Amino acid sequence: MLSNILQLVAILIVFVLVLIATYFTTRWIGKNGAIQSHSPNIHVKETFKIAPNKYVQIIELGNKFYAIGVSKDNISFLTALSEEQLDLTPVTQEQSQKSFKDLFDRARKKK
User: Fold this and answer.
1) Is the Cβ–Cβ distance between 62 and 41 less than 8 Å?
2) Cα angle value 97/25/59 (rounded, 5°)
3) CA 2 to CA 92: how far, in whole Å?
4) Which of 8, 57, 94, 111 has the most CB atoms around it within 10 Å of its CB?
5) Three-class SS state of 53
6) Is the distance from CB of 78 to CB of 64 less than 8 angstroms?
7) What is the pLDDT of residues 8-29, one digit of tens each?
Protein backbone atom coordinates (compact mmCIF):
# COMPACT_ATOMS: atom_id res chain seq x y z
CA MET A 1 0.00 0.00 0.00
CA LEU A 2 2.75 2.44 0.95
CA SER A 3 4.70 1.67 -2.24
CA ASN A 4 1.61 2.46 -4.34
CA ILE A 5 1.22 5.83 -2.66
CA LEU A 6 4.92 6.59 -3.19
CA GLN A 7 4.62 5.67 -6.87
CA LEU A 8 1.59 7.97 -7.24
CA VAL A 9 3.44 10.85 -5.56
CA ALA A 10 6.50 10.27 -7.77
CA ILE A 11 4.35 10.29 -10.92
CA LEU A 12 2.62 13.49 -9.81
CA ILE A 13 5.98 15.17 -9.15
CA VAL A 14 7.27 14.16 -12.59
CA PHE A 15 4.03 15.40 -14.19
CA VAL A 16 4.32 18.79 -12.47
CA LEU A 17 7.97 19.09 -13.51
CA VAL A 18 7.05 18.37 -17.15
CA LEU A 19 4.32 21.01 -17.00
CA ILE A 20 6.73 23.58 -15.57
CA ALA A 21 9.35 22.78 -18.22
CA THR A 22 6.71 23.08 -20.96
CA TYR A 23 5.54 26.44 -19.62
CA PHE A 24 9.02 27.97 -19.51
CA THR A 25 10.00 26.52 -22.90
CA THR A 26 6.88 27.97 -24.50
CA ARG A 27 7.53 31.38 -22.95
CA TRP A 28 11.15 31.30 -24.14
CA ILE A 29 10.15 30.40 -27.71
CA GLY A 30 7.47 33.08 -27.75
CA LYS A 31 9.77 35.76 -26.37
CA ASN A 32 12.76 35.03 -28.58
CA GLY A 33 10.83 34.24 -31.74
CA ALA A 34 12.86 31.08 -32.09
CA ILE A 35 10.34 29.60 -34.51
CA GLN A 36 10.50 32.38 -37.09
CA SER A 37 13.65 33.03 -39.03
CA HIS A 38 14.95 36.58 -38.91
CA SER A 39 15.53 38.62 -42.03
CA PRO A 40 16.66 42.23 -42.17
CA ASN A 41 14.49 42.98 -45.24
CA ILE A 42 11.21 41.11 -44.68
CA HIS A 43 8.85 41.85 -41.80
CA VAL A 44 5.22 40.93 -41.16
CA LYS A 45 3.86 44.15 -39.71
CA GLU A 46 0.30 43.05 -38.98
CA THR A 47 -1.96 40.02 -39.40
CA PHE A 48 -5.76 40.02 -39.31
CA LYS A 49 -7.87 36.85 -39.38
CA ILE A 50 -10.89 37.21 -41.67
CA ALA A 51 -12.10 33.58 -41.69
CA PRO A 52 -10.83 30.18 -40.56
CA ASN A 53 -7.41 29.70 -42.20
CA LYS A 54 -7.70 33.03 -44.08
CA TYR A 55 -5.71 36.12 -43.16
CA VAL A 56 -4.84 39.56 -44.48
CA GLN A 57 -1.26 40.56 -43.74
CA ILE A 58 0.63 43.79 -44.11
CA ILE A 59 4.24 43.01 -44.92
CA GLU A 60 7.30 45.19 -45.33
CA LEU A 61 9.75 44.23 -48.06
CA GLY A 62 12.76 46.49 -47.86
CA ASN A 63 11.16 49.91 -47.42
CA LYS A 64 7.87 49.18 -49.23
CA PHE A 65 4.62 47.89 -47.77
CA TYR A 66 2.20 45.40 -49.31
CA ALA A 67 -1.12 43.84 -48.35
CA ILE A 68 -1.41 40.13 -49.07
CA GLY A 69 -4.11 37.53 -48.57
CA VAL A 70 -2.96 34.28 -47.01
CA SER A 71 -4.95 31.06 -46.94
CA LYS A 72 -4.06 27.44 -46.33
CA ASP A 73 -2.85 26.77 -49.88
CA ASN A 74 -2.48 30.20 -51.44
CA ILE A 75 -0.90 33.63 -51.01
CA SER A 76 -2.42 36.46 -53.06
CA PHE A 77 -1.11 39.96 -53.68
CA LEU A 78 -3.80 42.50 -52.76
CA THR A 79 -2.24 45.96 -53.12
CA ALA A 80 0.83 48.07 -52.53
CA LEU A 81 0.55 50.47 -49.60
CA SER A 82 2.27 53.75 -48.83
CA GLU A 83 3.57 54.63 -45.39
CA GLU A 84 0.98 57.42 -45.14
CA GLN A 85 -1.85 54.85 -45.38
CA LEU A 86 -0.62 52.94 -42.33
CA ASP A 87 -0.62 53.57 -38.61
CA LEU A 88 2.86 52.40 -37.65
CA THR A 89 2.76 53.37 -33.98
CA PRO A 90 4.15 50.52 -31.89
CA VAL A 91 1.63 48.48 -29.92
CA THR A 92 2.49 48.06 -26.26
CA GLN A 93 2.32 44.64 -24.65
CA GLU A 94 -0.60 45.79 -22.50
CA GLN A 95 -2.58 46.66 -25.63
CA SER A 96 -1.77 43.44 -27.47
CA GLN A 97 -2.14 40.91 -24.66
CA LYS A 98 -4.55 40.67 -21.81
CA SER A 99 -3.64 38.49 -18.89
CA PHE A 100 -5.62 35.37 -18.19
CA LYS A 101 -6.52 36.81 -14.79
CA ASP A 102 -8.13 39.87 -16.40
CA LEU A 103 -10.11 37.73 -18.86
CA PHE A 104 -11.19 35.35 -16.09
CA ASP A 105 -12.28 38.23 -13.82
CA ARG A 106 -14.29 39.80 -16.65
CA ALA A 107 -16.00 36.48 -17.46
CA ARG A 108 -16.78 35.92 -13.79
CA LYS A 109 -18.31 39.40 -13.46
CA LYS A 110 -20.66 38.77 -16.40
CA LYS A 111 -22.30 35.91 -14.52
Assistant:
1) yes
2) 50
3) 53
4) 57
5) coil
6) no
7) 999 999 999 999 999 999 888 8
